[in-house]
Amino acid sequence: MLVKKQIIINHYMKDFSIFCKETNEKAAKLAVELGIRLIDHGECSTRFVIKFVEDLITLLDTKENLEIELSFNGQIASLRTKNLNSENLIKALGKIDLNTKIYDLTAGLGRDALIMALKGYRVVMIEKHPVLYVLLKNAHQNLLSDYPDIYSRIEVVNADSACFIQDIKMEDNPIFYLDPMFPKRAKSAKVKKEMQVLQNICDLSDNAEDLLKLAVSKGKTVLKRPKLAGELSGLKYHHVISGTKISFFVFERS
């Protein structure tokens, strides 16, 4: 098992390094765990750079000159001005017990999981990419001082979702959420910088349909999908909540 994890890390991390101007034990430890260089001055030779600045961790794509910073604290103030009950994501989840765990199988930058946690639900963010996991984990940890209630409702896990959910018991009535990445289209409009960086670092070959089938076999599943992407074949959904650009397909356990 350890060998498999090391292979995954090596595959993902070949184009990454860590930059930190001052001595930082957290940065040094992460560099060892991921097997990448820690740089404290000069130019970084890798395309992607994980930057440590005080309590924040950012990710820089040097080729595209794009830098993303993940802060749940900063998002909460904006989200709290909205009526979460009007969010199509919340409508798609339906009426569920607040003790039910929702497993976000494709956590990404965690925005949808944060909305679910703000609504009062218990959420497990599962992210396979080690760098995205680091960003999520740091953003989650930074919630503790200002928003301990929201912090307590979130777990962050670094794992392959297809492997992780094999051990989830169906009698716990889990709910699964998927927002899979899709390959970039040549004629598509320019996406937000966060999505550009995600598309550049993530493996888009993962089979979302296989993961969806596995999730549906375990419990109620909500799939977020752009309208332009069309429907996934092979599974019949129970109902759909549609917006202008995004649809949420709801599948009952098969």
Protein described:
By secondary structure, the protein is an alpha/beta fold. It folds into 2 domains: 2-54, no CATH class; 72-251, Rossmann fold, CATH 3.40.50.150. Helices cover 35% and strands 23% of the residues. The protein has 11 helices and 12 strands. The protein has helices at residues 2-13, 25-34, 72-79, 88-93, 111-118, 130-141, 143-146, 148-152, 161-164, 193-201, 208-218; strands at residues 16-19, 38-39, 48-53, 56-61, 66-69, 101-104, 122-127, 154-158, 175-178, 220-226, 239-242, 246-251. The chain has a 7-stranded mixed beta sheet with strand order 8-7-6-9-10-12-11, with helices on both faces. A 5-stranded mixed beta sheet has the order 2-1-3-4-5. Helix 3 crosses helix 5 (111-118). The longest helix has 12 residues, at 2-13. The chain is globular, with a radius of gyration of 18 Å. It starts with a helix and ends with a strand. The model has no long low-confidence stretch (mean pLDDT 86).
